[in-house]
Amino acid sequence: MKKLILTTAALALVVGSAFAQDVVRMGTEGAYPPWNLINDAGEVDGFERELGDELCKRAGLTCEWVTNDWDSIIPNLVSGNYDTIIAGMSITDERDEVIDFTQAYTPPDPSTYAALSDDVDLAGGVIAAQTGTLQSGYVAESGATLVEYATPDETIAAVMNGEADAVLADDSFIQTAIAANGDLMVVGDPVPLGGGVGMGIRESDGELRAKFDAAIQSMKDDGTLNTMIAKWEVSSQW
């Protein structure tokens, strides 16, 4: 879903397994509803909170939730600040050079443009996207003028205040933004980007990856995962 731009320093970081036998620190952004967000009680919430808690239960592990800015989320996994990334992250070859992934827990979520008018110029206009995402990479190569922002909410604000003609992001996030901002509307055609979304795991933590792989598969097999996907409307079902 999001294509992180990896730094040389991040590529060089290598640490051993840091998770205790039964406690796993789950790293997420907390700023990408409905995938992950911070609720009114100040707690991590959303699809990935519910999913992560269920996966830990099935794997016999205890989850502890940690939030981290998107632009440093992989380096801080590798350096041991938490043990997994569960943050709407697409499985890509570039990321797989630095970390491992579980099997995908959702199919790809198409990317969608949103704007304040249906006559915006998507091909040559100013398009907002979050820094280091699949969407920012796509816009940069499309011929449009890319303006990047550190957080998803800032991309929406850029359209609302006239800094950008449109925003490109995962459809599930765009639909949430439209529900909160009545003047926004979907424009143009969906853009298929990226592969499925999986959990990021340090390359040294093969045992942990295997536990979560098994838990994800069990949720696919008994239909629980599709039910959860439908509840949160994050992507198509398996």
Name the descriptors.
238 residues, alpha/beta, D-Maltodextrin-Binding Protein, domain 2, 2 domains, 5-stranded mixed β-sheet, 9 helices, 22% strand, disordered N terminus
What can you tell me about this protein's structure?
- The protein contains nine helices and 13 strands.
- The protein has 238 residues and is an alpha/beta fold.
- The strands form three sheets. The chain has a five-stranded mixed sheet. It has a five-stranded mixed sheet with strand order 10-9-11-8-12, with helices on both faces. Strands 2-3-4 form a three-stranded antiparallel sheet, with helices on one face.
- Helix 2 (47-59) packs across helix 8.
- The chain is globular, with a radius of gyration of 18 Å.
- The two termini are 17 Å apart.
Give a topology summary.
Blueprint: H1 8-12, E1 23-28, E2 31-32, E3 36-38, E4 44-45, H2 47-59, E5 62-67, H3 73-78, E6 84-85, H4 93-96, E7 100-101, E8 111-115, E9 126-130, H5 134-142, E10 145-149, H6 152-160, E11 166-170, H7 171-180, E12 185-191, E13 200-201, H8 206-221, H9 224-232
Parallel strand pairs: 1-5, 1-6, 9-10, 9-11
Antiparallel strand pairs: 2-3, 3-4, 6-13, 7-13, 8-11, 8-12
Helix pairs in contact: 2-8
